[in-house]
Structure formats: structure tokens, C-alpha cells
Amino acid sequence: MSRTNRLLINNAETCVDEMLQSIAWQNPGQRLLKGHRVIIREDAADFCSSGHVSTICGGGSGHEPFSAGFVGRGMLTAAVAGSVFASPPPNDILAAINAVASPAGTLLIVANYTGDRLNFGIALERAKAAGKKVNMVVVGEDCALESQDKTAGRRGLVGIVIVMKLAGALAEQGRSLDEITQACTHLSKAMGTIGVSLSGCSIPGTGSSFKLDETEMELGLGAHGEAGVKRMKILPANETVEVMIDHMMNPSHASHITIDNGQKIALTMNNLGGLSEIEMFVLGRRAIEYLESKGLSVVRCYNGHFMTSLDMAGFNLNICKVNDETLKCLDADTNAPGWPRVCVSKNTGFNRRNNDPVVPLNDKSLEAVGESVNFPDKNKLQVGHALIEAITLACQSLISNEAFLNDLDTSAGDGDCGSTLKRGANEVLNRSRSWKCENVEQVLLQMAGCAEKSMGGASGGLYSLFFTAASHRAQAYTVESWNDCLAVGIAAISKYGGAEPGDRTMLDALVATRNSLETSISENASIKTAAQNAAKVARQAAEATATMKAKAGRASCVAAKLLTQPDPGAMAVAIWVEALA
């Protein structure tokens, strides 16, 4: 959901001016025009005096990096900013035209909103009256409109950024104002965009732009959060993309886009501000897949922040029909900070037909260790099966405690301890069916491989170290052997992880378990009794971490007053020790 008015700004009235000043400071190739909300290229004077057409775009603030982020060589010569979600006034637009006036002419690129058309139109007429050579292209590519009735027309969305790139590249080539105007007009009619959002956005000084139920999403909304065509239940990523593309291509809709089979297209996945990178790439994956299933050829994909809506949790999907000339312009070099660099293959360009996962050379990963080992000892085989059964119970216990461990990790870490261990447990369950279970050393090495491959992060590394080190001492199915395994495993974790007993980590439960086993050995206890005692002590040690001061791991960076629950890593150890017992 949006953050309402919890925004890290100084003042709603001054935030736009402070932002523009910072943009110019952070990008030395840009300059802020004194007395105006206008960003221009550092080399604008030289560029224009050498006979190149200047290009200007602009609109309300809150859509960053649009449009200041696209000022630079190969893109815009100047950008004009209005207040948040408000068109810039004619005097700022006219100041931009005068600042980058070129003998070859100036092109204004304007999004199709009434305020933008009016204010840019006023500035254009005043510039013409003063003898300037100025053209204007209005970009409106929204595909949400269903009605065939007369309306204000298709709204201008992220497609305008693609038009900017074309205009800037052609201007850099020295093309004429009429040529650039014609090419941009053609491209603006060869594209379509539709948006979807899970929330409104936080407007400085105002609050949330609109409200959505937590189970809803809005289809076809505008760049400022204007109402879309419908509200619907939240769908998974794949289905969301399919609904959007089907709506865009529905011939019964007034604003649909028609694309012939085999057409080359550039796909733009525009983050409206509040979606994670994971979400954007998952959505982009299905968009490429679904478009190509319809016979289209996706030859470029741009994924990122282009024309946001403050912190709105949504995205735009833009489809643009391209030819070889357009592609050259999209690929042309630019130093505009907001334009993405697409990593293409030196052999196939954007062709992905050979883009299968790379097979490592001489792969000798841990998961392959022990695959050919076989010890046909019936007693070992019987005990080995019992070990696998115990490991299975431990994995199942970790999986069932995912939410509990995540909850413990919320205040001390990043809230994913349970989910991380669940991934490792599932990997062990999936792979243990084929293990040579009569050899405990190989079983532990296999578990190290599972932890390393599936868990990731510090937890995966620590468990991989633990099982790898323990495997060196796994000689027999006895309490003494398990005690030795624990000892070397604990030493490895402490050596490479940097923690010690008493630091409020998984080591506290592991060390307590080992101490319990040593006591059982001295008392000549049975394996069953030793295991039961160890489980009891492990639980007590894990719960005791609730009152400890964190000295290692992420929790050591958290205020002590927030650490009121047991350490999730220690509690996880208690859970699997109890299950093993």
C-alpha cells in the first residue's frame, strides 16, 4: 500500500525545486536553467549552433526519471518540470525553447493530457511569433479505452520515452525538423501501452491518490492514478500479463493495437515506482513469452523505471512496432542517465533461441559426490535407512515451522529464516531418495551440497560448512561419532562465521547439544537417551537466546530492545535436533 504522507521530503512546496537541483548536481552533463524548472544539456549551445534540431519534453513531476532523466547526448536537449502531477506553465516551456533554440528548429514532445497540450501549445505559438522554428508531436498510446464514443483521446504514457529516444537519435544524426517530426508521429501511432496497479501513490502534501482493497488491482489506470477500465481480483503475474495484452489487442476496443504476425516489436516494462525488481522480471518473462506465442518477434526489452507515478505499486506494459531504422535509433549511444543499456549477444544480438542455461565445464559440485559409492554392508544399510528416515523427519519439522521461524526473524533479521531453511529441507527431501545411505560421510556431503545449492546467503554457507566439516569425522553410527561430527562442524562455523557461544546465534544451540552428548558419553547412556537429552538441552539453549545480547549476524545491528524473542537460527537447530531424536 502507499505510504500516505510518510515521505522523506522537507516541504511539499519546495520538493520539486530541490529535486531538480539535485539532479543537476548528480549529473555533471546537465545544467539547471536559472529561475526556471528546466534541465538542459551541458553542451546545448554547441549542439544547437552546429545545425542540429533541439528536442524538448516535459510534464508534471512525480514521474521521474521522466523527463529530466532523459536529457543528454542522443536524447533530449531540455526537459521542463511542472509541480507534482501538474503540467509546467508556458513561461517555463518558453524559457526552455529560448535556451536551446536552434537554427534547424525545435521539436516539442508532449504527452496527450489537456493541460500539457494547452501549455506547450501556448509556448509554441509565442515562440513562433518571435520567429522561432518549432514543431510539436503529441503522444497518446494508452490502450485502456474501450468505448467507441468521442473522448479526450488516448492518454500519453511511457511510450513517450521511446519517442524521445527516436527523436534524440535522429537529431544527433543531423536529420531535419520535418523528418524527425514525421518519424516521431509515425512511431507514436505504432505503439500501445496499458497499466495495472495494486495501490495508489503518496502525493506530497495530499495523501494517497486512490484506495484499493488488498485483494484488488486496477487495470488501465493513467499516469497520475486516474481510474482505469475496471477493478479486478489480484491475479498471479502470468495471468496479469495475459489479461493486459489481450485487452490491448482486443479489436472491439476503440484503442486497441493491431500487430501483424511476425512483426518486430520493442517491449517496455515500466515500473510505476513501487514494485520490486523480482516482480518486474517475472512479469517481463511472461510478456516476452506470451507475445512470441502470438507470432510476434520481441527484438528488444527495456525493463525499469522510465515514467513512474511516485511510489505506485504497479507497472506499464508498452508494445512498440519497430523496423531496422527504429532499432538503430533505439540502440544509438546516449549518456542520458535514465536510459537503460540492454546487454545483447555479440553473436546473435537480441536473439534468444540459443540462450539455454550454460553447462559448467568440469563440474564437480558437491551434489555429485558419492553418487558411485556403494558399501554392501547389510547392517550399515539398515542403519543408513534409519538415518535417512530421521533426516526426513527433521526436514518435515523445519518445513512445518516455516512461519514460526520467519516470525522470529522479523525483528532480528530480514524475516526469511524459515523460508530459507524450508528451501534446504525440500532439496534434501527431493534428493535423499537416491542417496547411498549406507555411508554416513557421503550422506553429510550430500546435505552440504543441498544447503549450498538451495538455501543461499549466510545460512546456506553455514550449514554447508557444518555438514562438510562434520563429514570428515563421520566414521560410525555411535554417540561418540556424532559428538565428533558436532565438534568439527561447530569449529568450522565459528572459524568462518566469526561467532562464538554466547553471541546469540545457532552456535548456542549446537554447543549445548554437543555438551549434552559429552555428558551422555561420560554416563555411558544409550543412543536413545543421549538423543532425548540433547533435544531437551537444545530447546532450552535456544529459548535462552531471547535474553542474550546479539554479538554476531544481522541481529547484532538491531537495537537490543527489539530483540525480545529467541534467535531463529538457534531455534531452528532445536527443531531439527528434536526431530532427529
TrEMBL record:
DhaL domain span: 385-581
Recorded metabolic or biological pathway in which this protein acts: Polyol metabolism; glycerol fermentation; glycerone phosphate from glycerol (oxidative route): step 2/2
Keyword ATP-binding included in the entry's annotation: yes
SMART domains found in the cross-reference section: Dak2
Residue span(s) of domain DhaK: 11-339
Keyword Transferase listed: yes
Molecular function terms from GO: ATP binding; FAD-AMP lyase (cyclizing) activity; glycerone kinase activity; triokinase activity
UniProt keyword annotations, A-Z: ATP-binding, Cobalt, Kinase, Nucleotide-binding, Transferase
Function: Catalyzes both the phosphorylation of dihydroxyacetone and of glyceraldehyde, and the splitting of ribonucleoside diphosphate-X compounds among which FAD is the best substrate. Represses IFIH1-mediated cellular antiviral response.
PANTHER family: TRIOKINASE/FMN CYCLASE, TRIOKINASE_FMN CYCLASE
Entry protein name: Triokinase/FMN cyclase
Protein source organism: Ciona intestinalis
